[in-house]
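Running low. Invent one:
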Amino acid sequence: MIDLPHCPKCNSEYTYEDGSLLVCPECAHEWTAGADTTTSEDTKIIKDANGNVLTDGDSITVIKDLKVKGTSLVVKIGTKVKNIRLIDGDHDIDCKIDGFGAMKLKSEFVKKI
């Protein structure tokens, strides 16, 4: 019996081989055998306007008046946003702003509280 490594994401012991890849059936993570366990999504670092590293669940403050596309509303400078979620793309912060609802923001227009 071959002793396969545990999943680097969820630490599941039920990994299996699929060709040259190792696969976790619990979280669907795939990686190559012998490679280090960090992936490109783990190494992407998102920073605020001051250079502080942002993480999921952080609280931020808007540092510039931001027009909301498609409406006449403006997110004012100093607006506080709690519990952000980092995503891939041009607008790399997904959040809910009181009075506006769900929005996506660019990290260059916010600072960490």
The helical segments are 40-43. Confidence is low (pLDDT under 50) at residues 37-41. The longest strand covers residues 93-97. The radius of gyration is 19 Å.
